[in-house]
Amino acid sequence: MPDTSSLPSPLPPSDEAVEREAARRSRRAFIVGGVAALAGLGGRRWLVTRPETDRLAWPLRRVLDANGRLAETLFSPTRLAPEFPAGRARMPRVNGKVGLKTPLDPAAWRLRVEPYAPPLTQPLELTLADIQALPRVEITTELKCIEGWSVVVRWAGARFADFVARYAPAAQTLPYVRLATPDGAYYVGLDLASALHPQTLLCYEMNGQPLTGAHGAPLRLVTPVKYGIKYIKRIGSIAFLAERPADYWAQRGYDWHAGH
Ligand SMILES: Nc1nc2c(c(=O)[nH]1)N[C@H]1C(S)=C(S)[C@@H](COP(=O)(O)O)O[C@H]1N2
Ligand SMILES: [Mo]
C-alpha cells in the first residue's frame, strides 16, 4: 500500500452534499429521459440522429457528462485501486501509438511544465533525472483498457503529487491538468484531485525494466483508478489550467473522467 500519510487530503464531500448533487443529476437525467420517451417509438432514432458533441449525440453526451460530474463529486483520494503481488505482473500488449510515431532521442527529451502563474513566465524544462530524484514508488495494479482487456503490471515511478509539490507547488490552486505527447497528437485531461491521487504516478519503469519506446519511454502516466486511455505514454508537456482541458478519447466518444 502506498504511504498516503504525507499527502494533502482534501476533505471528502459530505454525504449530504453528495445526495444533493445526485438528486440534481437524476432530475436532469429524468428530464433528458423524458424527452426521449415523449419522442415515442421514434425516440431512439431521434436520439441517435441528434447533432453530435464530441462524437456522441448531444443528449447521450449530456447524460455521460452528468454521470462524469457525479463521479467527480464522489471521487475520493482514499479510494485505492486494488494492488496485487508483484509475481502476478505480465507484459501488456502495445496498445495505442498516437503521438509515438516519430523517433525520440531520450538524451534530448525534456518534460516541459507550462508556465501557470506569475512569476513563472518561462516553461520549466525537467530531465528524467529530475523525476527520478523524487521518492520512488512501486505498485502492482491492473491496467484496464476500455476495449475490454486487462493486465496486471508492476510500475515504478514518482507520485504525481510529489512532482507537483516539488516542481509546481503553486499549481495546486488550479483545478485541471493537461498532459500531452511532445508532438501534441495525444493528450489527456485530469481534474486535480485525480492527478494528486496517491496512485497516480509518473512512471519510468514497467515490470522491473526501463520503459520501452512503444510503452511510453521515457515517462508515462499511470492512474489505476482510471482506464488505460488516461495512461498517456511519452509525456512531453504538463500544463495546469483553470478550464477543463480537451482529452483525446473524450473527443472521440468516451467519458472524460474514464474512472472505473
Ligand atoms: N501517447 C499515447 N499514449 C497512450 C495511447 C496512445 O494511443 N498514445 N493509448 C492509451 C491506451 S488506449 C491504453 S489501453 C494504454 C496501453 O498501454 P500499453 O501500450 O503500455 O499497453 O496506453 C494509453 N496511452
Ligand atoms: Mo485502451
UniProtKB/TrEMBL annotation:
Pfam families: Oxidored_molyb. This is Molybdopterin-binding oxidoreductase. InterPro entries: OxRdtase_Mopterin-bd_dom (IPR000572), OxRdtase_Mopterin-bd_sf (IPR036374). Residues 1-22 are annotated as: Disordered. SUPFAM superfamilies: Oxidoreductase molybdopterin-binding domain. It comes from Hymenobacter persicinus. The lineage of its organism: Bacteria, Pseudomonadati, Bacteroidota, Cytophagia, Cytophagales. Residues 102-249 form the Oxidoreductase molybdopterin-binding domain.
